[in-house]
Design goal:
Elements lengths: L2 H4 L6 H7 L36 E6 L4 E5 L12 E4 L5 E6 L11 E5 L4 E4 L13 E4 L5 E6 L13 E5 L4 E4 L13 E4 L5 E7 L2 E6 L4 E5 L14 E4 L7 E5 L9 E5 L5 E4 L13 E4 L5 E4 L1
Antiparallel strand pairs: 1-2, 1-20, 2-3, 4-5, 5-6, 6-7, 8-9, 9-10, 10-11, 12-13, 13-14, 14-15, 16-17, 17-18, 18-19
Amino acid sequence: MNHRLARPSTVRTGVIALTALVAAAAPLTGSVAVADSSPAVPAAATAAVTANKLASLHARDASGVLWQYQGTGNRATPFAKPTRVGGGWNAYTSVTTINGTAADGSGDVVARDTSGVLWYYRASGRADQPFAPRVRVGAGWNAYTAIFGSGGYISDPAGSGDLLARDASGDLWLYRATGIVSAPFAPRVRVGWGWNAYTAITTFGNGVLARDASGVLWSYSRNVGGDPAKPLGYRVRVGAGWNAYTSITGIRSPLGTDAPGLVARDPQGRLWLYTTSWSMTTPNPDPTLIGSGWQMYTAMF
């Protein structure tokens, strides 16, 4: 099978910089060995960089068990075999990282339960138990159709990252980080509109990626030194054809280079890894096949 025919078309970064900027008014979205039935992954490689620079990928199976895939730093074998984080994660209707998770147990997560309560999982700094006990943020989060991290550094006084949420009308709201574990987010601020144009949104580097209904993927980077009311800069067109994937998930650096990555699952359950150029704003073409069987997971972050 020639996967080049199936993967989304892309536009290289240099061309994007000249031709694809759009107006700001555009839409701004105990460890144990895994059983043999787990998705196929290559044998782990020895990481050549420290764990805090390597992504980890978390995946929830149909029974609610959360599994952690730690990064290896090797392009051909980017993740080690999974370890079990814990059960009960099917209590959540939405789970997202705020700033990506890493193989050393860093990176925070928020999860919304079926009653609309949002919970905050602070990073533990332990690879074997990556999350501290959850902290209740508040109720009413069922008002949002999408919740996702900012990628880290829009305001972020403590390195924990800000949170973005889209409501039913398509408005985008920013919850700035406070650095206080017991109350991690400040009151919301409206920062955009028109985000109902997107069918998928994921944290990516210091920003987000968003796929529209026609399958075009767009990249939003942090608006460095810009208007605080507009935390994300102009969107950049990555490419078309991204409706070929049933899931897209931004991750920290898969190769330990500080440049973020992206994993995408196709309808056959195969997972593909996209690395990123040093521009850190858009995924590169030519993904690497990670493995098969990933349709068993109901969420990835």
